[in-house]
TrEMBL record:
Protein's organism: Ceratodon purpureus (Fire moss)
Pfam family, one: EMP24_GP25L
Annotated TM spans: 16-35, 191-212
UniProt xrefs under PANTHER family: TRANSMEMBRANE EMP24 DOMAIN-CONTAINING PROTEIN (PTHR22811)
Name of the protein in question: GOLD domain-containing protein
InterPro entries, alphabetized: Emp24-like, GOLD_dom
Keyword Transmembrane helix appears in the UniProt entry: yes
Keyword annotations of the record: Membrane, Signal, Transmembrane, Transmembrane helix
Family: Belongs to the EMP24/GP25L family.
Lineage per the UniProt record: Eukaryota, Viridiplantae, Streptophyta, Embryophyta, Bryophyta
Keyword Transferase: no
Amino acid sequence: MVTNVHLSEPGRQCSMGLWMFVAGLMWLGSAAEAIRFELDKRECWVHEVPADGDLMHVSFVVIKVANPWGRLHNRRAAYVGVDLSIEDPGGQQVHTIKQRMEAKYNLTAIRKGPYKFCFQNRVSLLQTIDFNVHIGHITRDEPIKDEHLYVLFAQIARVEDALFDVQFEQHWLHSQATRQAQVANGLSRRVLYKAAVESLSLIACSVLQIVLLQRLFEKRLGLCPQRV
């Protein structure tokens, strides 16, 4: 037996609101763009902003610096980090960040359209960047006729913002943890190499002392008067 259920107008609007809520959650995962890339000199990325006044969440972390010599020279270490410039669809620079190992920034997009994010590396060392950008925007395809649905959409927006904040912070913390692990790994290798060099130096000094003492005793024995 099949029963046909006819939804009233408020019921259809409520159902539409629930579907939009689910679509909003799915959109949340697709709207955030996380990229990990190696920066040699200059690299630019473009992200589309769908509407005027959308909020852009931007973060990056330098998780690795490819240095074959281990420890950086003081002058070179002072310039490690990257520059970030953000340009609006008209080509105007709206924000800049200079020589930072990590940064997290929120920016309101005055105009919709493609925004360009350009990274610049000032040193001759290859740097690995973890870059994350998200555009906060909720699409409403149809006007809301029921006043009660305004409350529903407000709750949807709050839940979406809360979920994004958690996701954004998790990615930020994960990137920082990755960089700290790389630094710790580099430090442990340097400590191991230093300990090995010190051990070899100690062994060499001990061998040298034994040789010198042996020669000293041989000379003294040679100077002793011999019995005829």
